[in-house]
Amino acid sequence: MVRASQATTFSASAYFDDRGPHGTAQPITERVHPHSRPIVSYFFPKGVGEFHYGERHPMKPHRLTLTNALVMGYGLDKQVHHIYNPRPATQVELEMYHDHDYVEFLSRVTPNNQNEMRHLIDTFNCVEDCPIFAEMYDFCRMYAGASLAGARKLCSGTCDTAINWSGGLHHAKRGEASGFCYVNDIVLAILELLRYHPRVLYIDIDIHHGDGVELAFYHSNRVMTVSFHKYTGEFFPGTGKVDDNGANLGKHFCLNVPLQDGIDDEMYLTVFKTVIEDTVTAFRPTAIVLQCGADSLGCDRLGAFNLSIAAHGECVNFVRKFNVPLLVLGGGGYTIKNVSRCWTYETAVLVGAEIPDELPATVYDPFFRDSQWKLHPPLTGRVENQNTPASLQKITISIRNKLRYLQGAPSVAMQEIPPDLEGLLADEDKNQEERDEERGTGFAGESRSDRCISRHEYFEGDNDVDQDDCPPLSGPKRHSISSSARKPRTKRTRGRGRGRASGGNGREDGEEIDEPGGPSSTKPGKTRGRIRSRAKPRGRIAERDKDVEDMDAEVGGEPESGFEPATPVDVDIDV
Q1: Which secondary-structure segment (H or E) carries 346?
Q2: How far apart are CA 199 and CA 402, in angstroms?
Q3: Alpha helices in 292-335 (DSSP H)
């Protein structure tokens, strides 16, 4: 027997809501030209919207599923050049910013073992706002991997705009979670951009201050952070005063625009466009990262502004018009039906498409029933505006005064390159041959480390084989030629010098060295002929060098035995 309450089941209900007089948007069918500019790439990790923070937690990853459904329902996927399902970030990539112990903790903690790891949970601030939920580490790897993939595409020049609505979690610190954020994908993406771009501008329009990103680059002059947020001193995270400027090299490269409750579209757009235009003019970024937190919209569960979806999207459109490589990320936003509508509209803005106010038909129609399936529901006027034109003008003047200290864009010299987020090879452990093989097998083994030495050679550059700093060649019962060997000698022994002439006789391969007092001693100032080493034979010397090559063998006894060596062969040498 079926109870009355069970008479209508979910499977028996209509697949789509009956909208009655309210229209339904038809999807765009025309595909974008593959060679049109700007090139837009859309990153959506498959399954990223299936995670759950908890029943009463305001953060709902399901908003990403709603957003993707509306984007596809409008047919915006046909206006996007590339759609990617990026791979998750690896632990090594996460540790390019975050501490190893913290990442290791995220990879091991689960709801089942959190009691045993209670001391670590408190250490890494995974309490209250940042709960431990199932497959939490996989969720972090997914959205971080999408932001890294977008940054790599921008660096390679394969796209001009990269969109990742699952990213933008700007509160996470190097060694702890904060504000619903476990891994700071924004910092990881900026580090990747800095491998190619000399200056990166970070813009944050979330209602909460982007403290995690600001802290990461607080001492850097290659990243300028600009945050528009609510600031009362008590509102989370409690940072973001207008006087926070950065430190050391990063002084005046940190800009904060603190706002009060209830700011409306006109005021917000005025201060936003003024500050951003002045900042871009002074800093001249080569890449921009835009965090589009939707909790700055009116009627947000945790927000207190009066922004409409159109005004929020106008901020995105204003940044887009600078024609600078742009990475667009999500962020906060806790009324999920408004978040999904906002990010869908901004996707249309970024691809340059116009979409109607009616929403397309999706399986999530019940979420939008109360707003009659409209893209731009009324969201403004719910909170009293506590901002005044005078207070905003004061903030604008303060920002302009800070920008004067820049005195033009900072130097683009890359003295310190951030680490490769894909993993670094231990170059310092490689020898020269292995480095040559990396450049190409054709270069491997061509360089010589053993250089032939011949006295009285001219130095012909770094690649010259005749260097005086190399040790002399040694052999059994052989005497090396030193500065003392140039003095007159009485006894004659054989040295290693080649191709030298003494007096009128040229000595090849076993030059005779006279001891002082001998009858055949030579004068110190007498001119001697010379022959290049076998590495550089020339003319007749090279031909004669082949004939006497084997005369290097030792034929005499010990110098002190008094045994006279055989008479050496005279060779004619041109001096």
Answers
A1: helix 336-351
A2: 18
A3: 309-320
Q: What number of other Cβ atoms are within 10 A of residue 26's Cβ?
A: 13
Q: What is the DSSP string of 287-304?
A: EEEEE--GGGBTT-SS--
Predicted TM-score (pTM) of this structure: 0.71
Amino acid identity of residue 574, one-letter, is D
**pLDDT value of position 531:** 43
Q: Using CA atoms, how far apart are residues 73 and 71, in angstroms rounded to an integer?
A: 5
Contact 189, 202 (CB under 8 A): no
- State the pLDDT at residue 375: 93
d(CA 254, CA 399): 10
Report phi then psi at 453, rounded to 5: -120, 135
pLDDT for 507:
43
Tokens for 479, please give them.
């005497």
Helix (H) or strand (E) holding 393: helix 389-404
pLDDT tens-digit readout, 537-552: 445 544 555 454 544 4
b/e map of 208-229 (b: 16 or more CB within 10 Å)? bbbbbbbbbbbebbbbbbbbbb
Output the six-digit token pair for 342: 């906002």
Which sequence positions are flagged as catalytic? 171
Residue 561 has phi, psi (to 5 degrees) of -80, -15
Neighbours of 518 (CB within 10 A): 15
pLDDT of 2 reads 45
Helical spans, DSSP H, in 157-289? 185-193, 211-216, 265-283
Q: Exposed/middle/buried for 312, CB within 10 Å: 0-12, 13-18, 19+?
A: buried
Asked if 261 contacts 304 with a C-beta cutoff of 8 angstroms, the reply is yes
Task: Give 3-state DSSP helix, strand, coil % of the chain, rounded to 5.
Answer: 30, 10, 55
The residues that bridge with 291 in the sheet, in sequence order, are 204, 329
Low-confidence stretches of the chain (pLDDT < 70) are 1-17, 407-575
Tally of helices (H runs) and strands (E runs) in the chain: 13, 12
